[in-house]
Write a structure and sequence with these properties.
By secondary structure, the protein is of the alpha/beta class. The chain has helices at 22-33, 52-67, 79-87, 100-105; strands spanning 5-8, 11-15, 19-20, 39-43, 49-50, 71-75, 95-97. It has a five-stranded mixed beta sheet. Strands 3-5 form a two-stranded parallel sheet.
Length: 108
């Protein structure tokens, strides 16, 4: 799987696919964990559906990055995605930002 990315210094922004579910989770995890940068922002704006496996993938990647001295941030203006993160209370476990720029600044 090849996902669209952007580089901001030591931070990489990864734009997730339209669906982040069981069928894509392993490939997304492998992609995120294989990046050379350890500070990643996952931009969920283009993602229309996320299931429990997709959410678990984000938490697993966060754990892996933290073990390597990095971290994961989430950026999304998508109301449905923000609501999913709130309802599942993952917004208390993952740092969620309204924009990619705010998420990038949080690493400074």
């Amino acid at each position: 799987m090849n996902l669209s990315t952007e580089i901001f210094g030591a931070v990489m922004v990864v734009h997730t696919p339209e669906e982040l579910g069981e069928d894509q989770a392993d490939n997304v995890r492998a992609f995120l964990e294989s990046r050379e940068r350890q500070n990643l922002i996952v931009d969920l704006d283009g993602t229309e559906t996320i299931d429990s496996v997709g959410l678990e993938t984000l938490l697993d990647v966060q754990d892996t990055l933290r073990e390597k001295g990095g971290d994961l941030r989430i950026a999304t203006t998508n109301y449905a995605n923000r609501k999913i993160l709130e309802v599942t209370r993952l917004d208390s476990m993952l740092e969620v930002f309204d924009s990619v720029i705010d998420a990038v600044k949080s690493f400074a």
